[in-house]
Design brief:
Layout lengths: L2 E5 L2 E10 L6 H6 L4 H10 L6 E6 L15 H9 L2 E10 L5 H16 L3 E4 L4 E3 L43 E4 L10 E7 L4 H15 L7 E5 L3 E3 L1 H8 L11 E9 L2 E5 L8 H7 L4 H4 L16
Helix pairs in contact: 5-6
């Protein structure tokens, strides 16, 4: 059954910096950290709906950060102790994707660095790393845009299924949290057996990359009954040009869970279970690759 999605005319991207310091001149803090065309783009947007800044006392903040998690306990503690929440909000036309959210997050990272703050993605409820600015003119979905990651190993030790059993459990539920910024529905894959968690995650990553160009074109889009995921899609997710597998495309089916979320499943004519499909039909690289460095000549060239 074909699925129709509706890409909105505008999307909103929000990022929050939690700090206990006086934020000072936020616009100046941003512009000091950029140069050339990137600084010009920031300057043009600052003060407009495409790049709006706001500062609130944490106790009266419009952003509830109580459920935010991160890998660093120190960041989590600083988040709880913060007295100020600085918001970066970007309301963008569809044609400004993915550059617009990328610029908004770059601005938020500049603020976080200037006030020694903790950068939060409210959509994924995760702390984001404040990395050096060398790649802010490059875009790749792999750069913390999806909000989907591997679950705790073996369901935090609670899964007692045999690791060699292809269909031994259904512990893994994966859902993206971030495609909405690009005008797209989130994607999910559920009832996955623990041994196939990485393969399932890479299927979501590749499907997200396949759909990404549609976010630049508002209106209704009727998706094919089978979405064909290619090696180029998986490469582009990481910001690379080199092919990731040699065989042909991987077919998946999509079904509507809600108007804002689609389920990714095996093709309708696959005779086995989801886990048998993940085990038997996927290119081996999808079972193996957890992370990958981008090709700097490729990242930042959105298609569509």
């Amino acid at each position: 059954m074909r699925v129709t999605i509706t890409v909105p005319e505008e999307t909103t991207a929000d990022f929050v910096v939690a700090t206990d310091r006086n934020p000072g001149d936020l616009s100046a803090a941003i512009l000091r950290r950029f140069s050339g065309s990137f600084a010009a783009a920031m300057s043009e947007r600052l003060g407009s709906p495409r790049l709006a800044l706001a500062c609130h006392p944490a106790v009266n903040s419009p952003w509830d950060l109580s459920g935010v998690t991160g890998p660093d306990a120190d960041d989590t503690e600083r988040l709880r102790q913060a007295t100020q929440h600085i918001g970066v909000t970007s309301v963008l036309p569809a044609g400004d994707l993915p550059l617009g959210p990328h610029l908004a997050r770059a601005a938020a990272k500049a603020i976080a660095e200037s006030v020694c703050g903790v950068l939060v993605d409210p959509v994924s409820s995760q702390v984001l790393p404040v990395v050096p600015f060398g790649r802010f003119d490059e875009f790749a979905l792999a750069d913390d845009w999806l909000g989907a990651s591997l679950p705790p190993y073996r369901n935090s030790g609670r899964c007692a299924a045999d690791e060699d059993d292809i269909d031994g459990c259904a512990c893994v539920y994966l859902t993206t949290r971030g495609l909405c910024r690009f005008g797209l529905p989130e994607l999910q894959i559920t009832n996955v057996a623990c041994p196939h968690d990485l393969a399932a995650l890479n299927v979501l990553r590749t499907a997200a990359q396949r759909l990404l160009p549609l976010g630049r074109h508002p209106g209704e889009h009727a998706l094919p009954a089978e979405l064909l995921l290619t090696s180029a899609d998986f490469s582009a997710f990481w910001g690379n040009r080199d092919p990731m597998w040699d065989d042909g495309p991987l077919a998946v089916s999509l079904s509507e869970v809600t108007p804002h979320r689609l389920a990714v499943r095996p093709p309708a004519d696959f005779p086995g279970t989801l886990n048998e499909w993940l085990w038997d039909e996927l290119p081996p690289i999808l079972h193996e690759l957890l992370s990958c460095e981008p090709d700097h000549a490729m990242a930042g060239r959105p298609s569509g």
